[in-house]
């Protein structure tokens, strides 16, 4: 019921005028439907028994009028309910998407994107269908039922009691079916989510799938999940489908009882044939809406199942948000400082332990260390993708928790290992963070990123579409576009996660050159994998198991002969073609 109230207040209230119109149309449908038994009664009595020719035309026109009005109002009501349903989908999807965009990174990463996609598509549609159907059931069908039953009571109250005696029995069955439907729908939607996850994963990893010859295994995995979706959907379909026959059987009992009782009444002369036929017509006409109303439990429970998956996403509250007293970050020099920072992820993984790092204004500080040491975590704390568990991170002496997120994120540019490009033009990709930039500025950024020349050689220059995730470009080209994007943003702080995969020599040189131009004059915190970057760094922090274990310039650290010296021997000399090897290998 909480879910129903919430749907009504959040998504139906804005359309209350339209819904009222649809309900009004449904009441007309109900009234015109109940006119039919009355017309039958009148026809039997006035035409068949009294042979009154004068009312024949009136009765025929009455039937035609009622049916025409019914047809028009049915159309109006259906169109309105479909419109309201679609508007609801728009509202929920918009709300969902903005929730996802503003949610904390830590929360988003807990759930596979496939689950979100399925929530967007399947759950929302299920909620729409259930809501629209419920409104139709509870206005049109229920009203028809009430009118017809009212008419039955008007004709013969005792016979009406006999005819409607089966309704409470039907209600008991329907409750049970409703519960079954909710369970099956829940599971079906869950499996649909798993299916989306599986499809995304298989397509994302299609090269791995093919390279390892796992096509059949993936097909089998998908077939299994698809079969589970089918199984749960069928359970829900069966529960829903049972509602019809159960109502039918119970209506049969009702009709039999009515025939028995009415027969006796007719034999004793207490009932006219007009009343009898009118009553029977009302019972027959009530059958369809009764089925729909009886089905309401299962329809409702489907919606509740979808809502129970949607609402938790809609309800998630981002923790990393501006406080009421947050101020604009004022960047004077862009000095970054991590002071005794500890951090653990939501799942409890302790990634950083008492880390203190200073990146003086305009300098380049490199983070090095083995895989899983905590380098990316440190980088992620600077734009406040995550909040520290202990300690403080500050820029120019201002604690990040006290400044607005927008001003903080405006102050830094992030270049990741695997640059992400949107399926749009090169121009749009470069201008992603600076949508107002003119062509001159975009070109200047591309030139500085050593990307301008290759862009001009593409079929449509800056208007070339880069394809899904930029796959139409080479690795080095993608990196230079990402560098141009950061260049255009022109932020005083640069957060750089160097690519680990080596490019060919020419590409590598171009990327290095672009990066060096980008780093010039900016405070740079870089996860370094290249010897050239490390050699140029003003300071190096060696991270291991979430702690700073060594610190200093390259030559000093080599001289120390500690972890860094060992690391540089094993790592940095291999993937750094342009620079002479560090240690003789
Ligand atoms: P690499 O060089 O391989 O990228 P790294 O030094 O950047 O490694 P981090 O990515 O910072 O290492 O990871 C530090 C620790 O935190 C690791 O133990 C990792 O398993 C864990 N970790 C990273 N991301 C998450 C996450 N989203 N949730 C839980 N634990 C995480």
Can you characterise this structure?
With 585 residues, this protein is of the alpha/beta class. It has three domains: 313 residues, ABC transporter transmembrane region fold; 171 residues, P-loop containing nucleotide triphosphate hydrolases (Rossmann fold); 69 residues, Rossmann fold, CATH 3.40.50.300. It is 64% helix and 10% strand. It contains 20 helices and ten strands. Strands 6-7-8-3-9-10 form a six-stranded mixed sheet, sandwiched between helices. Strands 2-1-4-5 form a four-stranded antiparallel sheet, covered by helices on one side. Helix 17 links the parallel strand 7 and strand 8. Helix 2 packs parallel to helix 5 and helix 2 packs antiparallel against helix 10. The longest helix has 53 residues. The chain is elongated and about 120 Å long. Bound molecules: adenosine-5'-triphosphate. Adenosine-5'-triphosphate (ATP) binds next to helix 11.
In this entry the ligands are: adenosine-5'-triphosphate
CATH H-level homologous superfamily name of the largest domain: ABC transporter type 1, transmembrane domain
Residue fraction in strands: 5-15%
Order of helices and strands: HHHHHHHHHHEEEHEEHEHHHHEHEHEEHH
How many strand elements? 10
Radius of gyration: 35 Å
Q: Helical stretch count?
A: 20
How helical, in percent, are the residues? 55-70%
* Biggest pleated sheet: 6 strands, mixed
